[in-house]
Amino acid sequence: MRYLQIRRTLYSLTGKWPKTSAIERTKEIERHWIPKLLDEHEKYEIDPENNNKEKMYVLPMFPYPSGRLHMGHVRVYTLSDTLARYYRLRGHRVIHCMGWDAFGLPAENAAFERSEEPIEWTKKNIAYMKQQIKQLACSFDWKRATTCDPNYYKWTQYIFLMLYREGLVYQKKAAVNWDPVDQTVLADEQIDEAGRSWRSGSIVEKKFLKQWFIRTRAFTQTAFYSTKTPYKPPSAALDLPPPPPEYDLVCAQIFTRHGSRALEGRKYDTLTKALWIQAKEENALTELGRQFGNDLQYFVDVNDQIGRGELSELGKHEQQGLAHRVAERLLPLFIKSLLRNESKSIQVVSSNKSRTKASLRAFVEGLPPSVVRLVDHQPPNPSLLFFHDNARYQTYLKNDRRLKNKLKSIERQSYSKQMARDILEQLYRPSFIDKLVDKQYCLTDHESDRSIRNEFDAVRMLHALYLIGSNLEQEGVGCLFEKYFSKNQSAWYAYLQDAKDYYEKGPGFLNQTITYDMAQILLDEFLVDSDECSQIDAKHFLRVRFGHAEGIIPFIALLKIPILSDKQTPPKEIYTYANNGWRGEIISPMSANIQWEIFRYHPRHHGRNSRPEDEKILSLVDNLDTLDKDDWQTLINIQRMWMGDCNGVNIQFKLKIPTNEFDFLETFTTKPETLLNVTHLYIRSNHKLARADLIEETKAGAKRLRTDAVHPLTGQPLPIFINDDADFGPKIRANMSMLNVQIGTPSTNPFDEAFARQHNISTILDSSAPGQTMDVETLMAELRSRGLGGYRTSGKLNDWCISRQRYWGTPIPMIHCKNCGVVPVPENELPVQLPPIENIKSSSRTGTSPLANAHEWLKTQCPKCGNQEAKRETDTMDTFVDSSWYFLRYLDNENTKKPFEPNIVNQSMPVDLYIGGLEHALTHLFVARFIQHFMYSKGLCTSIEPFKRFIPIGMVQGKTYKTLSGQYVRKDQVLTIDKDTTAHSLTKEPLQINWEKMSKSKYNGIDPEEIIDKYGVDFTRMLMLSFVHPRSLRNFTLEDGIAEGLQNWFKLFTYLYVDLIEPRTKSDTKSSINHEEFQQIEASLREQRLHTIYTVSFYIDSFFSIASAIIELQKLTRHLRKVSADVKKQSKEYSQSLCDLLVMMAPVIPCLSSELWIILQKQMKTNIDGYDLTKSLFEQKFPTLPVDYPGKINALFETTVFSSMPISRSQLATMTTADVLQHLIENDKQSEMKAFIAKNGLKLDRSRKLGDYCTTLIYERDPTIPYVEPIEPIVEKKKNKPPKKKPTS
Ligand SMILES: [Zn+2]
Fold first, then answer.
1. Which of 2, 97, 512, 787 shows its CA 20 to 30 Å from the CA of 971?
2. How far is it, in rounded angstroms, from Cα 176 to Cα 204?
3. What is the dihedral of CA 803, 584, 523, 508, to 10 degrees?
4. Signal sequence: where (predicted)?
5. Residues 52-80 as b or e (16 or more Cβ within 10 Å = b)
6. CA distances from 701 to 328, 691, 706, 721, 763 (A)
7. For 282-320, what is each residue's pLDDT tens digit?
């Protein structure tokens, strides 16, 4: 900013109001106060007192360091700063951070065009823009995140790898949107309706590249139930892959543990109860201990009711779920078997224990009814499925000293001892536990030969109840015992349980094979049976065995699955999660099932596609309902529209002769049930395949492709026609390839029928086609099993492609090895740093990343096999990945161990107010929500949504002048004829006037520095915040008189305070008004002041409408201006008003307010209620309403308050929404409110409470009542009526 060097003349320095011109004074005030205000803010940041305050996380979207601030930035940051200052004055701990979204294209272009290092270009811009934001007196915490800093992108890579491990990142070759100008891939969302790039504006093309995608789907959660972990459908990472390309599924072998069940015998509960009774008799129960007695009794009753060892409801559901998944997975085999009219092709067998027999029954119940006749019940086989009953093994368990000592040493670590005590102390008094530790009790259950002799035994029993509880969820136990274990404790005991299982049943000691040996019988059976059922004339294709965890664990150990189960531990070491992958993050063999599938080579299959997904999206859609409607409505609508309803199915049709670009055509249909009636396909004439060399003309004059498509179910050839008249469905976005393909179904669609007749397309279907009787679900399952689509999707949403063929982005931390395929970079090698640009010869601009030329960087060692010729991934991430989690990093930005510490972050999350452009509402907010959902699912964040309220900021537009031929004209060439008429100054051609987004090419931009230079900082802030609601478009000009009006107000406002120094109007020493009149004026001043406090708070708290608040404050200013000099002299209310007004104005115009506050400090002779005049302005508190000032209840529809009434605040504070509603209706004397509600067909939607001073009932149209008529507000404007609505633009 340029300032003239002038003499110091400020009042705050000299005690005299300077006689300089207004603009000189303004500049000097700002030069003096801005550094002070920013310093003061730094002190605020580290004030320990903040920890006791309620948090308020105010977050403006962080900027891209493009070089200079534009008016849109100024609008966002001044609003954000004003709100931050407001909430600080209101006593909140405000978190207000700033960082930089610093990767991206312009820096890279600068680098390659001007051989300037992107980092240098970026740093330079950051320095300049930071100085500009500071110049606006914006009080940010600057010690935060910059996305191009390796200390930040290290953790972006780390999060990418987290997603990868969860199976949420994958790579596929795909048609991508290619921006030929920027030479980069774009997401669908970055293309406008006309098919142009959002950045370069060029028409987007399709290109085929191998890309990285982030998958949006259901997450897994960690549980602490060891072998008792209830089954869940396989997690994303575990999802069975489709058969390898060109292979067919032949048969499957399954060994499953039985479902969740009740306690088997009476050992744990009986002994625990005996201990409890002992404690009760000794009067040694704590309060929680007494409750535990009830819980225990309830648990015993539930178990007795189910029957000991019998399946719980959950157990049955688990087995039915397994049946569903098996049926879906093996559908082709089921169908084949049904079509061949076979029987007994699914063999089932149990161990003969009641729970395995019940599991078998539940499994069969879960199969589709049509296949039940295929089930072949084999005689139970205990020697195969209950093999752990053998004598040698049981002797080992009971007598092996090495085993016993190991388990004892694990369980009785000193840590464990303290933890056992901590757990028991919740239930029993310390003296009782002392005796237990002293082995003074010995409680034995003779039936099971178990006993409680010490604290370890006691907790082990208790923990067993906790584990079994999780299996009895639907019987009402579930988490009943969770309150007796903290998260740490349950995790520790889960570990002890796992360690016990590991040594007793699993891999155990190095070179110890007793567990493996006993499972060999089962492995032999798997092999023999696989051989049998993979024969061409095999009778059965599936064998399902129902066994026990005691069998599963040794069996998996025996299979020696790499990484997972081939992990024995030397006797001197101890098994832990850290040194052994046996209980991995992804799979735990201790609670798994085994499904073993045999494939046969069959060359007709190829080109399977990875699945698009809908589950996660659904939850992101569903969760939109939880967002605050007032702020989020626009966004909810946009996101819903974007994600769409998952109302159809995607289907892939293979091409008989694949081209270089396409193996298949993909389409989306809302009528999948018609799939069997499809006889031909249409593609649009703009489809990539509609090329002259691929097209031929039919006799009837239609254009068709030389190759046919293949029906995904029947294998029938389907001709493909080029026809734009077919119904391609609503056009959602340009370049949506799946909407460029449509199916033709003559039997259900008249257009298709006519077309088929005209072009002689055979409408007779192959009658032997499988699945003609299939329902839609079966059809979809069949498509999925063939890798040809079959997913419910919205037809809109694709997986998120994050690959960018650019240099200046976060490197994707992957390595390509010719032996191992794609291998993630080990975490301890992060970050993968960008190489310096001088090592990169040139950007080839052929669609590969410039990083492909960084030869030294490119070559690396494979972390898996050590291959020295492995290569790094050369794509970098889309910057939307960088910005998807910065709000988390802000809160713990110096963490060198992980992206953030959950305990720290969760103290401040979620963001309370998110402020930014609506243009980011789609992509950025979707990706940020996705990452937050992910973090939540991993237990790293406690809030599922990242942002509580969102203020979408409307665009700032400038006036444009255009010739009739569409050419923009510079302002100095515009000739103004009258208010609405202009012409070109040279050609005299008439010009069109419009408001458009500010842009250099339209000559309608305004540089913020220009305005600051002309009017000062405070004025610029106020200009940006006045007149329109933050959401509205801001048509910005300095020529509409608004600036002059504001300047007048500034003068009025300033002189309210300057007059305190030397009153300009001298009055008689004796007052001319009498006491009564004076009292009336005082009362009116008070009313006006309190009304202003009320309305200002209401506007900001409800709508964040600083503009409406400013109008109220301007009114108060004018009101105070009219007060006569002799009233001023004696009026306490006047002084109070001056203080209140200044503090309320301070967030908007911090510099001038600070200077005027010095006047109050020096001139106020008496103390003013609520203020400490010895302290600075921003150490004051925002004025509050006195307790006797009535609160208000408002009833609001759209933006109209249609009913309103005062109520005492103490009463309001304790009222529920129902009470408020009741009060409003009871006091609705003229029944105006009822009439309004009836007339407009409204119903109460929600209520919003603002402090203790106002509750608003928000009504919406009742969809069950037919639409009536446009509303007419019933309440006419009255004086002091409650604030009505947001200002108009
Ligand atoms: Zn390798």
1. 2
2. 10
3. 150
4. none
5. eeeebbbbbbbbbbeeebbbbbbbbbbbb
6. 44, 17, 14, 11, 19
7. 999 998 898 899 889 989 988 998 898 899 988 888 888
Instruction: List residues, by chain if needed, whose CB lies under 5 Å from ion ligand 1.
Output: 817, 819-820, 862, 864-865, 867
The pLDDT of residue 1142 is 96
Helix (H, G, I), strand (E, B) or coil at 92: coil
Could you tell me the distance, in angstroms and rounded to a whole number, from the CA of residue 510 to the centre of ligand 1? Answer: 28
Q: Which two tokens stand for residue 875?
A: 């794509």
Q: Decide which of 666 and 269 is more confident.
A: 269
* Centroid of ligand 1 to alpha carbon of 817 (angstroms): 5
Ligand 1 centroid to Cα of residue 826, in Å, is 13
CA of 860 to the centre of ligand 1 (A): 10
Q: Of 153, 174, 254, whose CA–CA distance to 522 is shortest?
A: 254
Q: 851 alpha carbon to ligand 1 midpoint, in Å?
A: 21
CA distances from 335 to 341, 772, 1281 (A): 10, 11, 72
Q: What gap in Å lies between CA 376 and CA 349, rounded to an integer? A: 9
Q: Coil, helix or strand for 482?
A: helix
Identity of the residue numbered 486? S
Question: Is this prediction's pTM over 0.70?
Answer: no
Q: Tens digits of per-residue pLDDT, 707-720? A: 899 988 777 789 99
Burial of 4 (0-12, 13-18, 19+ CB in 10 A): exposed
CA of 584 to the centre of ligand 1 (A): 22
- Nearest Cα neighbor of 81 from 98, 69, 64 is 98
Give 1180 or 1041, the one with higher predicted confidence: 1180
CA of 822 to the centre of ligand 1 (A): 8
> What is the CA(828)–ligand 1 centre distance, in A?
18
The answer to whether residues 979 and 971 touch, using CB atoms and an 8 Å cutoff, is no
CA of 404 to the centre of ligand 1 (A): 41
- Tally the residues of the chain: 1289
- Distance in Å, CA 870 to ligand 1 centroid: 7
Using alpha carbons only, give the angle 356, 237, 898 rounded to the nearest 5 degrees: 125
CA 823 / ligand 1 centre spacing (Å) = 7
The CA 27 to ligand 1 mean position distance, Å, reads: 65
Q: How far is CA 161 from CA 352, 813, 898, 1051, in A?
A: 45, 8, 13, 59
Model confidence pLDDT, tens digit, residues 40-80: 887 777 777 778 889 999 999 999 998 889 988 999 999 99
